[in-house]
Amino acid sequence: MLLFITVQSLKAQVTNINDLYVGDWKDAKGERFVQIFIGKEGDYKGQLLDDITLKNKPLVMLSGKKDGNVLTLSGDGWEGKVEKDKLMLTKGAEKLSMSKYFRTSPTMGEKAPKGAVVLFNGKDLNAWSKAGEKEWIDGSGPADNWKILPEGILEAVPGAHSIMTKQKFGDIKLHLEFRLLGQVTNGGVYLMSRYEVNIKDAFGQPAPIAMGNISKPATNPSVNVAFPPFQWQTLDIDFQAPRFDATGTKKTANAKITVVHNGVTIYKDLELEEVKGSTGKLGEAGVGPVYLQEHGTAYQFRNIWLVDKTIKGTEKAFVAGSEEKKGGSKGGKSGGGGKKGGSGEEMGTGEKKGGAGNKNGEAADTKAVVRKGGSSKKKADPTYVGEKNPAYANVTVSLTADPSGKPAKSAGFIHPGVLVNGAQLAELKRRVAAGIEPQKSAFEALKNSPFGALDYRAQPRDTVSCGPYSNPNLGCKDEQNDCAAAYSQALMWAITGNKVYAENAIQIMNAWSKNLVGGHNYANGPIQAAWTGSVWPRAAEIIRYTFNGWSDSDVAKFQNMLRVQYVPSLVQGDCENGNKELAMAEALINIGVFNDDRAIYDLGIKMWRGRTKAYIYLKSDGPTPIEPPGCGPAIWSNKGLMPELVDGILQETARDAHHPGMAFASIANAAETARQQGLDLYAEEAKRMVAALEFTAQYLAPNNKPKPENLEFSYLKTWEIAYNHYVNRLGMSLPYMKAVIPKNRPTGVDHHMVWETLTHGEIGNIGLPTIMKK
Predict the structure, then answer these.
(1) Superkingdom of the source (predicted)?
(2) Is the pLDDT of residue 737 over 70?
């Protein structure tokens, strides 16, 4: 049962403490306001308001562009600039002059009353214990995992676990002050280690603070009172614990909570009917600790105290949770590294995603948490191997190196045939030379990127260690960059004919095949192997079959690297979330083609077929989504909020915009490589893939249909490949995506989504083989 204060877009970029533009601005009369913030793509955004609490919708959304010391703003006929601490906006004869101002909470700095329990006095953490793995009620020693900064500030240390009070409480009045540091933040304070007030930064966001994961959904607050990054904020919480009968074994009244954020009451006597989701296994009790969550990002607290109003005699009251009654749960709120939440895949772009479901940082509906084949090992353990899918427990593929020193013998695959073919590469070269769009602009983007630099040099590792929330982060970004660079250099070679690019690609691939001996470990090792394992073969196919300078012995080493260092992390799939298993399927398909290994390729096809129909919903599936083979029900909700099941919604749509986009890219990429080999996976799941494209596109500019509540959508570096197939090859009509594609071009690099506009923008069916008969 979770209470959420949404305080920043999960994809927002880092804000600098010295940024003079970000924050609140108001006119002299206090009638108009502008909030300037950093958008999802790292650009400046603004919104003109007539109510600073966003009780009313923004009057105008503004786009900003910085030039030197001047920030220009524009939108809906308004033009303006921020210069020398003044913001000027004009629209026709209407002019606004604004100055920056700072809000403060009326309870900021409030002293603990006589008799209060001071939990943090700025000097020590004597009232706290460290929250170890799966420790939610009792701590595991001194809270030396967080640090105390000068001026009495307590800071969460990423990857160092959460903390909880040594003392347990029932009814309390809690005061705390917190500050976010301009990074994507998903922390929180848990009452009784069960009921969460989720601390995120919603400054600049038009949606009100969200609330979820309670058995009876409540109306969202009508205001958003979040302060900008680097400004202290307050939470004042009145919490009433559940009531029990004289035996302490039967609940007679639900818990209640009142939350005051920055002096504004956002929830008043809200009844919390039942502990659900990731906290459900704890049941309900008369007392419990206050729990401060570490969730992968540094953020700060100060002046924490409470008035203890616990009713005597309730210390032993307890009612088992719904999950416990059903026989337990494989989830739990500890997950990766002892944090409430889970692995939270490191996104490689500086973004850390929590995720829907109790294995990925959020709570899930109890019907969706039971999975088969999970691992009980800690995600901060290098031996952690993820939630292996029992459907692939008995696969038979070769995982040992071929000692012959020669490339694998032909298995009947078409080469080059991973994502692109030879005729397609020749067409790209022709279009770029002729200045034909969209290839012209996409090529310039590639050429001017770091991945296309003539002096690019690899940064190989002997082992790639990718833990939850980049703890540890040893070689993860290096590997992602290098595989993208190898593919980029291969494309540059194919388009320009400059052999330096081909030699660069070979240098990168050889560096990794000679150094990588320890594979991929820690919680995000398998998904890291999937992301990079899908890109390496794209580069290798182009170089091996269009350039004569890559020796057979080096090709053999590279094939052995893929087989020994990548495939073992992929072959047993993953039940945790669909984006992972789909990325694994794509990597297996691509590796199978380059390695001329039918067993690996066929396994990837099988995995794709099993997971794709379970990832994209169609109403024809019935009232509930299809279950992925071997895993039981997948998680479609987020923080207890279940979106409406409509045609084309993706399994992780409720989670964020990025993960379902990555999953769809894997679906499309794998289908494209299969089509290059004469297998039409596109046709097998056409209804789902087309529905997913149109479902997503309808909420993006310029379509801009009103988004379903609590769902987010954003431009991503994908969709070109599937769009090219269904529209340019088959002549289908996708009106929503047709409007989005030009706005999204040219696409760049994001994990396994690499230069799609360049390779597939309006490319049609050039070079495709005849479809094989089933």
Answers:
(1) Bacteria
(2) yes
What single letter denotes the amino acid at residue 497?
G
* Dihedral sign computed on CA atoms, order 470, 476, 478, 481: negative
* Least confident piece of the model among 173-182, 366-375, 471-480, 754-763: 366-375
Is there a contact between 413 and 591 (Cβ–Cβ < 8 Å)?
no
Longest dimension (CA), the chain: 84
Cα–Cα distance measured from residue 758 to residue 487, given in angstroms and rounded to the nearest whole number: 12
Name 738's Cβ contacts closer than 8 Å, sequence gap at least 6: 723, 727
> 137: closest CA among 103, 95, 166?
166
**What distance in Å separates the CA atoms of residue 613 and residue 578, rounded to the nearest whole number?**
11
Segment holding 130, helix H or strand E: strand 128-131
Q: If you write DSSP's letter for every residue of 421-445 in order, what string do you get?
A: -HHHHHHHHHHHHHT-TTHHHHHHH
Instruction: Answer for the pair 591, 558: CB distance below 8 angstroms, yes or no.
Output: no
Q: Which residues pair with 180 in a beta bridge?
A: 299
460, two tokens? 């190989």
Structure token digits, residue 231: 């400004």
What is the reported pTM?
A: 0.57
**Overall fold of domain 117-327:** Jelly Rolls (2.60.120)
* Percentage of residues of the chain with pLDDT beyond 70: 85
- 3.30.1360.70, 2.40.128.50, 2.160.10.10, 3.30.230.10: CATH of 12-101: 2.40.128.50
Report phi then psi at 143, rounded to 5. Answer: -85, 60
pLDDT at 39: 78
Total residues belonging to the chain = 774
Contact present, 531 and 583 (Cβ < 8 Å): yes
Q: What is the C-alpha separation between 271 and 257, in angstroms, rounded?
A: 7
Is the omega angle on the peptide bond into residue 206 within 30 degrees of 0, that is, cis? Answer: no
Report phi then psi at 103, rounded to 5: -80, 160
Tokens of 250: 């039967």
Strand partners, 5: 199
3-state percent breakdown (helix, strand, coil) of the chain, nearest 5: 30, 20, 50
- By CB atoms closer than 10 A (0-12, 13-18, 19+), residue 112 is middle
Query: What pLDDT is recorded for position 524?
Result: 92
Q: Which residue has the tokens 């307890």?
A: 318
Coil, strand or helix at 647: coil
Q: What's the rounded Cα separation, in Å, for the pair 529 and 480?
A: 10
For the segment 429-440, the average pLDDT, to the nearest whole number, is 98
773 Cβ neighbours under 8 A, 6+ residues apart: none
Distance CA 254, CA 243 (A): 7
Residue 297, Cα to own-chain centre: how many angstroms? Answer: 14
Mean of per-residue pLDDT scores for the chain: 86
pLDDT of residue 34: 94
**In angstroms, how far is CA 46 from the centroid of its own chain?**
24
For 73-92, the pLDDT digits (tens) are 999 999 999 987 899 999 99
Return d(Cα 659, Cα 532) in angstroms, integer: 16
Tokens of 57: 């919708």
Would the pLDDT of 371 be above 50?
no
Of 352 and 470, which is predicted with more confidence? 470
Query: What pLDDT does 624 receive?
Result: 95
> And the tokens for 328?
């337990």
Q: Count Cα atoms within 13 angstroms, Cβ side, for 222.
A: 4
Residue 378 confidence (pLDDT) above 90: no
Instruction: Tell me the DSSP string of 535-562.
Output: HHHHHHHHHHHH-S-S-HHHHHHHHHHI
Return the pLDDT at 332: 33
pLDDT at 373 over 90: no
User: Average pLDDT, stretch 328-340?
Assistant: 32
Find where tokens 């196919």 sit.
541
Confidence band, pLDDT 50/70/90 cuts, at residue 370: very low
Give the start-to-end residue ranges of the domains of the chain: 12-101, 117-327, 421-569, 613-774
Assigned token pair, 5: 């204060």
